[in-house]
C-alpha cells in the first residue's frame, strides 16, 4: 500500500528519521577483520562473531512481472539496464525473503518472521529452514519486528491462529504500532489500503496485551540496539549488535533488490510509503555501513542475504559473504 506525503506527515514522524545512529556509525576505528560463513543447508547460512552466532534463514521468494511502476522515479528502460548489468532477467523480478536468528548468551532472537502461511506458494519457508538449521521454533525466546508489512509479521501466527513461536516475547517499534493500530487512520484510509491495517489486527489483535513496544533508538533487548529507519513505513526500524569485534546490522527493508536499490539508492521502490524520507534514510544507513564496515543483512537480498556495503560511484555495491 502507499500513502501520500501529506498523509504520512500526519503521523508526526517526518523529523524522527534524524535520530542518532548507535555508537557503531561513523567511528569504525581500525577496519574489522574478514568474516566468512558457511551454508548449513539450502537457504540457511551462518556466521560466528565471537560467541555470537547469526543465521540467515531464507523464507523463499515470489516472482512478479517487471512494469514501469516498480521503480517510481526511474524509467523502465533504466531499470532494465540495471538488471541487465547485474545479469538478471529484464522482464520479471524475483523478490526474495529472509529472516535472521541471533544466538548469544543462551538466548535465541528471531528478526522478523516472514510470510508464514499467507504468502506466495514459493514463500513461507522460515519454519522449515529453521529446522534445517537445527533450530526448533519453540526455542525462540524473542522476536524483533522491523515493521508491519505482511511479509514480516504474517509468520507470527498460523492460519488457525496458533502462535508460531509460542515461548517468544514479541517486540515491535512503538511508532509502527501506533500507526497501524489506529482505528481512525484505518477508517480514513482508501478502501484498497485497508488490507494492511486489517492484516496487522489479525496478527496482533489477539495478543496485543503481551506485545512489547519500544522506541527506536533504544535497546529492545540487552545487547541489541535499534535504529530509526523511517520512510519505508512510519516506524521502520533496523537492529544492531556488536560481537567479536564486528558490528552486525539487520536493515529490514531499507532496500529491496540490491542491483536496483543498493546500486541506485535514490530510486524509490513502489513499497516505500514515504519515498523521499526512505531515500534519505537509505543514504544515511548505507553511508554508515561503509564507514563502520558493518556486516549487514536484509530481508529482500538474495541468499545468503548478508554481506558488506562498498561505495561505487554515486551509489553502492553489496559484497555478499561467502
CATH class: Alpha Beta
The average pLDDT is 91
The second-level CATH architecture is 4-Layer Sandwich
Q: Helix content range of the residues, please?
A: 10-25%
Task: Provide the CATH superfamily.
Answer: Ribonuclease Z/Hydroxyacylglutathione hydrolase-like
**What's the overall geometry?**
globular
Strand order in the largest sheet: 1-2-3-4-5-6-7-8
Write down the secondary-structure element order.
Answer: HEEEHEEHEHEHHHEEEEHHEEE
User: Which regions contain 5 or more consecutive residues with pLDDT less than 50?
Assistant: 1-30
How is this structure best summarized?
This protein has helices at residues 5-9, 76-85, 126-132, 150-153, 174-180, 183-188, 194-204, 258-261, 275-291, and strands at 37-41, 44-49, 52-65, 92-104, 107-111, 142-144, 169-173, 212-214, 225-228, 237-243, 246-250, 295-297, 306-312, 315-320. By secondary structure, the protein is of the alpha/beta class. The model is unreliable at 1-30 (pLDDT under 50).
Report what the structure shows.
With 322 residues, this protein is an alpha/beta fold. It has one domain: Metallo-beta-lactamase, Chain A, CATH 3.60.15. The chain is 22% helix and 27% strand. It has nine helices and 14 strands. The strands form two sheets. The protein has an eight-stranded mixed β-sheet with strand order 1-2-3-4-5-6-7-8. The chain starts with a helix and ends with a strand. The N terminus is likely disordered.
Amino acid at each position: 500500500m502507499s500513502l501520500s506525503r501529506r498523509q504520512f506527515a500526519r503521523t508526526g514522524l517526518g523529523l524522527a528519521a534524524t535520530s542518532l545512529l548507535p555508537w557503531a556509525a561513523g567511528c569504525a576505528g581500525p577496519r574489522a577483520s574478514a568474516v566468512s560463513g558457511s551454508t548449513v543447508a539450502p537457504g540457511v547460512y551462518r556466521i560466528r562473531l565471537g560467541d555470537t552466532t547469526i543465521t540467515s534463514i531464507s523464507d523463499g521468494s515470489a516472482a512478479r512481472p517487471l512494469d514501469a511502476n516498480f521503480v517510481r522515479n526511474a524509467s523502465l528502460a533504466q531499470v532494465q539496464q540495471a538488471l541487465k548489468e547485474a545479469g538478471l532477467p529484464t522482464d520479471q523480478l524475483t523478490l526474495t525473503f529472509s529472516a535472521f536468528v541471533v544466538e548469544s548468551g543462551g538466548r535465541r532472537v528471531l528478526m522478523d518472521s516472514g510470510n508464514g502461511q499467507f504468502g506466495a506458494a514459493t514463500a513461507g519457508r522460515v519454519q522449515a529452514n529453521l529446522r534445517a538449521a537445527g533450530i526448533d521454533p519453540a526455542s525462540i525466546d524473542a522476536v524483533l519486528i522491523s515493521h508491519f508489512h505482511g511479509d514480516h509479521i504474517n509468520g507470527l501466527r498460523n492460519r488457525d491462529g496458533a502462535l508460531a513461536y509460542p515461548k517468544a516475547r514479541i517486540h515491535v517499534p512503538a511508532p509502527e504500532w501506533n500507526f497501524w493500530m489506529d482505528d481512525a487512520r484505518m477508517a480514513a484510509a482508501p478502501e484498497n489500503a485497508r488490507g494492511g491495517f486489517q492484516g496487522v489486527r489479525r496478527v496482533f489483535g489477539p495478543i496485543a496485551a503481551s506485545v512489547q513496544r519500544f522506541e527506536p533508538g533504544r535497546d529492545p533487548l540487552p545487547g541489541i540496539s535499534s535504529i530509526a529507519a523511517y520512510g519505508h513505513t512510519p516506524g521502520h526500524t533496523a537492529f544492531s549488535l556488536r560481537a567479536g569485534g564486528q558490528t552486525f546490522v539487520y536493515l529490514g527493508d531499507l532496500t529491496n533488490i540490491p542491483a536496483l536499490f543498493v546500486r541506485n539508492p535514490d530510486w524509490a521502490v513502489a513499497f516505500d510509503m514515504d519515498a523521499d524520507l526512505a531515500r534519505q534514510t537509505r543514504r544515511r544507513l548505507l553511508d554508515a555501513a561503509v564507514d563502520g564496515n558493518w556486516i549487514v543483512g536484509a530481508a529482500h537480498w538474495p541468499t545468503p542475504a548478508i554481506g558488506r556495503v562498498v561505495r561505487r560511484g554515486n551509489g553502492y555495491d553489496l559484497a555478499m559473504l561467502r
